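Materials and Methods. Structural model of MFS transporter. The 537-residue sequence of MFS transporter from Rasamsonia emersonii was retrieved and submitted for structure prediction as follows.
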Amino acid sequence: MSTDVEEKTAPALSTTDDVKVDNELGLATTNNDGEIQTIHHRIDKAVERSYLRKLDFYLLPFLSLMYLFNSVDRSNLSNAKTDGFDTDMHFQGNEYSLLLLLFYVPNGLADKEFDLKECRSTSESAHKAVLRENHTSLADAGLGLLIDDPNRVHELWRNARHPFAYRVRNQLRSCCQKNLLSIWILSAYRFFEAGFYAGTIFHLTLFYKRNELGFRIALIFGSAELAAAFSGILAYGVFQIKNTALKGWQYLFIIEGGITVLLSLFGYYWLPASPQEARWLTSAEKDVARVRSLQDGSKDVGEDFNLKLAFRQWKDPKMIIWAVIALTYPVPFTTASNFLPQIVQRLGYDVVKTNLMTVPPNLAGFCVLLVVTKSSDYFRERTFHICFALTLSLVSLIILATTDVETNKGVAFFAMFLLASGAYIPSCLYHSWHNNNNISENSRAVTTGILVGLANLGGILGSATFRVEYAPNYIPTLAATAACAATSIMLVLGLGLWMKHDNRRRDREQGVRIRPQDVDTSLLKDHENDVNWRWFS
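The predicted structure was written out as tokens:
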């Protein structure tokens, strides 16, 4: 072991079970009159600070930049719609809502499939997911050129002779005749975007301790808010291009998709699959990374795929609650990300100003996101912070549903700030929360993929309820979104209070107060069922 690590002897939590010696890490246990003594290496704080600085400098900014353009690719339809995308595509009735709906279905289902495949090598899961998603954005770069004229697709297949190509050609012609070609194309290629966010979250759990996770996820996920602001600014400029062969929304797709492709090419070189493979870490820092993960994050590091362990947590009835929360908390986020420009448009602004007016709420929301997640990590508390964020969204939705925005523009714009401030926080803290209470890398890889997939499916409601007949006030949409926010608040509060109660019960039984950070996760033989476990609530 490195000389940067010193030995320290400290009493472990009382137990009668033998604990396996880990000579590689330097952990050992001795049985002394029925009490287990733990001898382990103390982490050198200077090396740990250096390790965290490198992660925050080399890893986080690039992942944030990739997710920014991932989010731009996913949400640019709302900006395009303000420039007449739906009119140019001859959408009728609720076909625009159908377009958004069909994005969430394949994306949510594929999230589960891709993460199941990737967890076979847990240390490489996020690396593959991140890079795969960004290559699919090549479609965005060409999408603006393609979908303005469905006959161009016919031209691509006109001379095809292969039987498969012939069948595809006929299928495309059928789609064109039904005026749904754009829906078919967008849904197909965005299927392959699945797994990016889930893979990124799991990737971060391999590098950071549990109380460092929420803020780091927020830095990455917060780029979604910056993406909305960036897309609004870019749309403001692009939509002023007139009298050209292409329309403004086509230029928007080409520019945003092209940047994402360039980022993905560099990502192959830059992103490490795990701390042990990071070329910019020293051997001492890699040792510290392993010790940190075992002390406050995982029972084992670098696990091989094990199907039984992967689905172990899904035998717990609490997973039903986790799943329902995953289906309900994203609905306010979907409303904010996909339809904020349409809500702002109700204030009576023109196309250009509508896109520009979406920038301030998203920038304010990004600042609130960082403050709340930093507080959550600092106090090691998730329940009340998530409920606070959902309450902000709930209040904003009630204001929008009960206020005449045309005569009360100031109140309506204030509600926009509340919606943007509260809608993004749960995605960061919720996925930190369930990962904080799961110390198996196998289980984290699968559970994160499934719950992120369910969250994507939860976006269906937000998309499906924004129907043409509800315009311009969208009262049923806002009511349904508010109901989902209220449901999520009740479930989060109930689960969190149960965890806090169970921690107190365990303290009484053992006769000592133990905090979650006092528990060495590498010594928990029975994972979260171990007597010494404490919930991160």
